[in-house]
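Quick one: sequence plus 2-acetamido-2-deoxy-beta-D-glucopyranose SMILES, need structure tokens.
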Amino acid sequence: MKSVIGISLFSFFAIVASDDVYKLETKYIDVPIDHFSYTSDATFKLRYLINDTHHDKGGPIFFYTGNEGNINSFAQNTGFIFDIAEPFDALIVFAEHRFYGESMPFGNQSYVSPKNLGYLTSQQALADFVYVIDHLQNEYKSRWNGKKLPVIAFGGSYGGMLSAYIRMKYPASVLGAIASSAPIWQFNGLTPCEDFYRITTGVYASYSPKCANTIKNSWKAIRSFTQTPDNKKNLTSLWKLCNTPSTSDDIDKLVGWYSEILVNMAMVNYPYPTNFLTNLPAYPILQFCSTLDSYTWSDDYSLLKSIGDSLQIYTNYTKSAKCNDINETSSNVGESGWDFQACTEMVMPMCSVDSDMFENAAWDFNKYTNDCSKNFNVRPRSQNEPILEYGGKDISTASNIVFSNGLLDPWSSGGVLRRINDNIKIVVLPDGAHHYDLRGKNDEDTSSVKMVRSFHAKEIKRWLKKYYENYAQVHVI
Ligand SMILES: *[C@@H]1O[C@H](CO)[C@@H](O)[C@H](O)[C@H]1NC(C)=O
Ligand SMILES: *[C@@H]1O[C@H](CO)[C@@H](O)[C@H](O)[C@H]1NC(C)=O
Ligand SMILES: *[C@@H]1O[C@H](CO)[C@@H](O)[C@H](O)[C@H]1NC(C)=O
Ligand SMILES: *[C@@H]1O[C@H](CO)[C@@H](O)[C@H](O)[C@H]1NC(C)=O
Ligand SMILES: *[C@@H]1O[C@H](CO)[C@@H](O)[C@H](O)[C@H]1NC(C)=O
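Reply:
Sure thing.
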């Protein structure tokens, strides 16, 4: 959604690897299209993935609250749950978020109109998840003499927001939540709008101030170099674009595409190669900056050449990309779903300022709503919906949640980084990227991620211990 917010938010045009590392069974459950009125009985099939190999007796349900994308790509990138399922005797479930992957309430008509898309909200999704949990409780009740299994929610990014929210809204269904890189405070008035790009800039500058400075110079270079049609063509071959940008809208799109890549590299700046967003080497920013720093540039052209070549770390790591389609990310269904959510309930104000390396951009809510109207024929009611719905900073009545954030993750800007109460734990990975702690273990893992993962396990154990003790008391009749 370049035209609206400059960058597309979580942007999971995630690759689904051809051979899955983690195996789960695919199931479907009928859930109401509208949980909040009784005017229609219409239902649709929500997909969830399940593996009960390690489940034993009263073992918990580890429940991943799916985000804005195909649920299997999250299952394949959340190895932490699989790593700890065996010692906890846990049942593993990944539930898909409605309007993503295969969980389309109106089939191939789901995205055709605001009338259909209107059922794409976090509240409806949480209610879906509660249906899935209830269904699982019935299905597995014989495993523990008819008793209710404890449920631990997990999620990263928007999924992490949902795991925190489901614990807050439905404490009877969910005992506790691991909310990783969950920017629940990336909303109006809760966080300065420039924090996101300030943090991103810091990551690049921490590898090399020169690299951040070259990037800072590149925006003006793009704008001035592409003034003439000939130079537009020139840049097209320099950056190996699929189509030559012609209008100023196209140049805006190009700028958005490029800045989105810079943000994405920070999000997935993991210490080993991954294929979450795309195929990438270990520490892609280190690779990008060392390539960029190896060039000397003297004018717009040589500057843009050095950027174009360096971007190949992200766009062409496999060496098999034909050309770069600056339309690509916005044409992806998963992303336009998130863009719709960002145009209704999830308005996250962002801006960039002189002191960061991005092109200056003020936060302009009026322009934002006009773009939403143009793209989706909807407007956000206000910037405050999620604050009314989920409490903003006033969450002191919540409990049994761990908020974890990597401080090198742009999204830590909206994360919960300070103490709320004794029953909400705040942990940080000083050197961590976006929901790094939810990934499976790896030989290259940093010591901070190992510590955070064992902290999660300890908290879950504590919640469960209390649950089983209380349960024994309450259910002795
Ligand atoms: C569940 O995971 C185990 C490995 O932990 C695997 O052997 C098994 O095939 C999986 N079950 C299903 C139904 O995919
Ligand atoms: C949409 O789905 C319907 C019903 O499943 C099917 O008959 C139709 O061919 C589909 N249309 C497109 C364009 O895929
Ligand atoms: C692109 O522009 C640069 C600098 O203006 C020039 O040296 C180069 O020859 C141009 N290349 C093409 C293919 O037009
Ligand atoms: C982006 O997509 C639109 C519509 O599909 C097309 O007209 C335009 O040429 C594309 N722009 C670029 C730069 O690829
Ligand atoms: C990707 O790399 C290959 C091999 O170096 C090159 O031929 C191709 O043009 C590159 N594609 C892009 C989009 O950079």
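The two ends are 56 Å apart (CA to CA). The beta strands are 25-32, 43-51, 61-65, 91-95, 151-156, 176-180, 401-406, 424-429.
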